[in-house]
């Protein structure tokens, strides 16, 4: 199996590194939340890839089928998607509240204001 046979894992690595870069390189809270979502999506793809067995059937009992894919990763990822959506909503709500209170969602400006050195 060549490198194309592991295409899903290359996608996972690319999305994971992109999400991680966005989180550490950007100071904007919205961009950080988007980076976390990209990172989270890469983990979803990784777990779903691990749950798939080539040549296996869906986990429904049928005559003549002897090999089934494991449904547990798919169920866990479904739960993780719901939790991820809720976490993103809370993060965006917090960003709105920070913007209302401080007038900015830039991390460096908030740090300056907290230190009492605005405009430096």
Description:
The chain is an all-alpha fold and 120 residues long. 68% of the residues lie in helices and 0% in strands.
Radius of gyration: 20 Å
Q: How would you spell out the order of helices and strands?
A: HHHH
SS-based class: mainly alpha
Beta-strand content: under 5%
Q: Which regions have little confidence, pLDDT < 50, spanning 5+ residues? A: none
Helix content: 55-70%
Major beta sheet summary = none
- DSSP helix count? 4
Q: Would you count the extended β strands for me?
A: 0
- End-to-end span in angstroms? 56 Å
Mean pLDDT: 87
Shape: elongated
List its salient traits.
68% helix; mainly alpha; 4 helices
Can you describe this structure in just a few lines?
The chain is built from four helices and no strands. The chain is mainly alpha-helical and 120 residues long.
Q: What's the SSE blueprint?
A:
Elements: H1 7-25, H2 29-51, H3 72-102, H4 107-115
Helix pairs in contact: 1-2, 2-3
């Amino acid at each position: 199996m060549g490198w194309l046979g592991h295409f899903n894992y290359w996608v996972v690595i690319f999305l994971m590194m992109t999400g991680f870069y966005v989180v550490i390189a950007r100071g904007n809270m919205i961009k950080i939340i988007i980076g976390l979502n990209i990172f989270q999506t890469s983990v979803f793809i990784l777990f779903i890839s691990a749950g798939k067995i080539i040549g296996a059937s869906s986990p429904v009992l049928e005559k003549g089928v002897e090999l089934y894919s494991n449904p547990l990763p798919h169920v866990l990822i479904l739960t993780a998607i719901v939790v991820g959506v809720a976490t993103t909503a809370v993060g965006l709500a917090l960003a709105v509240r920070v913007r209302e209170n401080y007038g900015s969602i830039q991390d460096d400006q908030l740090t300056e204001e907290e230190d009492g050195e605005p405009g430096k």
